Amino acid sequence: MTKDLASMLRRFSRQMALLGALRWTGAILVVGALLLISGTGGLSTGQFAAIAVGVPLLIVASAALSIALTRQVQAAAIMLSLGKLDDAEVWLKRGLTKFTLSRRAKITAAHLLATLLMQRGQYEDVVAVCRALLRQRLERLRQTWVDARLILADALLLLGRLREAYEALMPVYGLPLPLEAKLKLLPIQLRYELAAGHPASSVSALPEKVRIAELMDPANAALTHALLAEACRRENRPAERDFLAERARLYHDLEPLAQRHPIINPIASSTQTS
Question: What does pTM read for this prediction?
C-alpha cells in the first residue's frame, strides 16, 4: 500500500469517527436545550434569536457540503462506469478526504475506490480500502457491506491468501442475498472452494449454480462454467465436465480468463485442444 493511500485511509477513519462523535454531541445538546427550556420556563429573546438564526444556518451549511460531496461521488461513479479510471480516482480521493456530514457519501466513495483499484489489479490496496470500510458501522447499508466483503475476498484470493478470503466470505454465507449479490458471490465462492481443495462443495446444487451462471455477463458466465467444469473434473464426472466446458467456451475465450485465474487451466487447455 502506498503512503498516499495509507494517509488517505487514516484521514477517512478519523473523519468517520468524528462524524459519529458529532452525532452524539448533537443529540446531547438537543436534550440539554430541552431540559434548559423546561427548567427555566422559556428562553430569553437573545437566546431564542441565537437558536432561530444559528440552527438554520448550520443545517444549510451542512446540507450544502453534503450535496457537493454526493455530486462528486456520483460523477466519479459515472466516470468509473465509462472506464475513465484516472478521472474517477481524483473525485473519489476528494470524497474520502473532504470533510462532510454525509456519512453515506463517504462510505460510497470508499466502496467505489475499492472497485476502481480492483479493476487496476492493485489488490493489496483493495484489501486496505475494504478493511477500512468494513471497520465502519454498515448496518443500514447491507448491500455495501456485502459488496465490500466480496471485493475483499476476491482480492485476497488473487493474492493467494485463502484463510483470509474464507474469513471475508463466511459472514455472507447463509444470508438471504438478492440476485445481484448471488451473481457476484458464486464465482468467488467457487474459486475459494477449488483453491482450498473442496470440489465436492462446488458441485453441490449444481443445476442451481448453472442457472445462476447463465444470468451473468459473458466473461463471468464463462469463468463460472469453467470453474464448475473443473470441479466436475476433480470429482470424476466427465459428462458434466464436458458439457460445462463447452458452455464456457461458447460464452468467452478462456485463455485470458485462465491467465487471471490459473485454477481453470485444465479446462481452458482441454477446450483449446478439442
Answer: 0.80
